[in-house]
């Protein structure tokens, strides 16, 4: 059914069983694993439920996004590896605020109901692996420093860093004593393309998360997306 993804489906099913993530046994672990993979592949919750109901057992669309978030801690595990160079970048993500926090005269066309978060990513351009992703409320040298420290925790060496001209990068990279350079195009295409894939994937959300999505929920979703991307060669960059 999944061809090259059969092994991934089996691995994810096994992890869901071992971790005993879901306290109710109304659905088989393989059904939930299949739902996670199909949803990751770009299908809406409704379309995922339709396919899983045909391929496995009846599933409604309502719990699928909750399953994805609840299993997200499985997707945060990244092995410590050697990376000769990494590309670091960030992008803004608009998140819809709860209605109670909307201004009295809310102009949705102007985005008054949205708040802006920033997703940071570090990609190895040689292996096309996502090494680290994180979400912050701001975009400054302080957030950049915290992110780069998180990146180094996943490396057993001190890789060369490629960044853009963002003013938030020089200070933390110099403080940490890393070799770095400003790069336009070339290896930067790897992280920029990945951001493009992620924003295409959240297209069903209209490029934003639904109302009441917390910062932790958005970060968990992005980390799950990165982990599954690393496991599935068919989604690698061209």
Summarize the structure in short.
The protein is an alpha/beta fold and 238 residues long. The chain has helices spanning 6-19, 29-40, 45-55, 64-70, 141-152, 170-175, 188-201, 215-231; strands at residues 85-96, 114-124, 129-136, 160-163, 180-182. The protein has 2 domains: 3-70, no CATH class; 85-212, Ribonuclease H-like superfamily/Ribonuclease H (Nucleotidyltransferase, domain 5), CATH 3.30.420.10.
Report strand order across the widest sheet. 3-2-1-4-5
CATH superfamily membership of the largest domain = Ribonuclease H-like superfamily/Ribonuclease H
Helix-residue proportion:
25-40%
Structural class: alpha/beta
The CATH topology name of the largest domain reads Nucleotidyltransferase, domain 5
Q: Measure the end-to-end span.
A: 24 Å
Mean pLDDT metric: 81
Query: What is the 3D form?
Result: globular
CATH arch. level architecture of the largest domain: 2-Layer Sandwich
Tally the structural domains.
2
Assembly classification = single chain
Describe this structure in words.
The chain is 39% helix and 16% strand. It is α/β, with parallel strands linked by helices and 238 residues long. The protein folds into 2 domains: 3-70, no CATH class; 85-212, Nucleotidyltransferase, domain 5. The chain starts with 5 loop residues before the first helix and ends in a 7-residue tail after the last helix.
